[in-house]
Amino acid sequence: MNAYCEARPVLFQPTERADISRLLTCEGEEQQALFQAARAARQAAGMDAVKLRGVIELSNYCQKTCDYCAIRPQNKEMIRYRMDVDTILAITAEIVAEGITTVFLQSGQDPKSDAMVLEAIRRIRQADVNVLLNLGEKSRATYARYVEAGADSYILKFETSDPVLYQNIVGTPLAKRLECARWIQDVGMKLGTGNIIGLPGQTLDTLVDDILLAQELQPDFVSSSPFIPNENTPLEHLGVGDLQLTLNSIAICRLLFPHALIPAVSALEKIKKGGQLMGLNAGANVLTINFTPKDFRDKYAIYSKERFVVSLDHAHATIAAAGLRPRQVANPVEVVSSYN
Ligand code: 5AD
């Protein structure tokens, strides 16, 4: 065990670059001490109850050309879809019926769905649930319209803090992404952000910078996801991102953002059975359950064709295995009729 963990076994604060760097690569007993400290920080912050989100992947049209993602427009193998409002509301009713209070609308960066999304948000809000969005880079005015319609939070990951790497892999400037993140906060939404671990050219220093960038943004939610090689993309032949680095990054984020929502992303389960449980044990406290109907879901291949699709049963089993409880409403409301 290293002196750092011995000296401050619980609730320690890695504030220096060297501390973050060391914790990112720690192993064995030292790593267990890190995870334990992260769990203690989560408990002390009153954030142990696991938040469930229900995601609807409403469109796989995308303007962005990210090298890691199969819904990039260059992928001509991908059959494209865009849901209509009624489909989204029918799925929302399923989410709400399960007692899940956050409806998470996710899509490629698809300006043609903006108007439909606004209408969907307004109508989803007729049930007493939160609307979380992950729809990419928009104008400040568009973000403001989402808020007017009733959305309260937005995930826009910076993916990597290295501007050169970001430009090379994503094809647009990191500065633009960060400007959008600021707009999201300015218009009054909670911000979720985070990185991908395992991009080509990333170094340990880049990952330290990722954590420092997250600190600068002061997000409400933060995530680290392992890279998953995706068919029909320029990065399809790369290996998966490192599980231990990802878990350590999650734990460090918990120490730095004790009150944040931190997901154990499905990509963790994709690279290792039980990976999401490992994420909860490292300090995460969110699971996202996929409610996208199978026909659409199969076409939403951001995490490869055989991605791990999180079911309600899997989420509950994972939460129980972590010795935690879901954060859920006592009496799920019947909302189907309220949309008619
Ligand atoms: N591996 C890991 N994360 C990915 N994302 C998209 N494709 C991949 C991949 N191949 C993540 C990005 C994006 C979010 C919606 O999904 O971080 O912001």
From TrEMBL:
Question: What does the entry list as the binding residues for S-adenosyl-L-methionine?
Answer: E159, R177
Q: Does the keyword Chloroplast apply?
A: no
Under InterPro entries, the record lists:
Aldolase_TIM, Elp3/MiaA/NifB-like_rSAM, HydE/PylB-like, rSAM, rSAM_sf
Query: CDD domains from the xrefs?
Result: Radical_SAM
Cofactor needs: [4Fe-4S] cluster
Segments crossing the lipid bilayer: none
- Cofactor binding description: Binds 1 [4Fe-4S] cluster. The cluster is coordinated with 3 cysteines and an exchangeable S-adenosyl-L-methionine.
Residues the entry annotates as binding (3R)-3-methyl-D-ornithine: T288
**PANTHER family registered for this protein in UniProt:** 3-METHYLORNITHINE SYNTHASE (PTHR43726), BIOTIN SYNTHASE (PTHR43726:SF1)
Please identify the protein, giving its name as recorded. Answer: Radical SAM domain protein
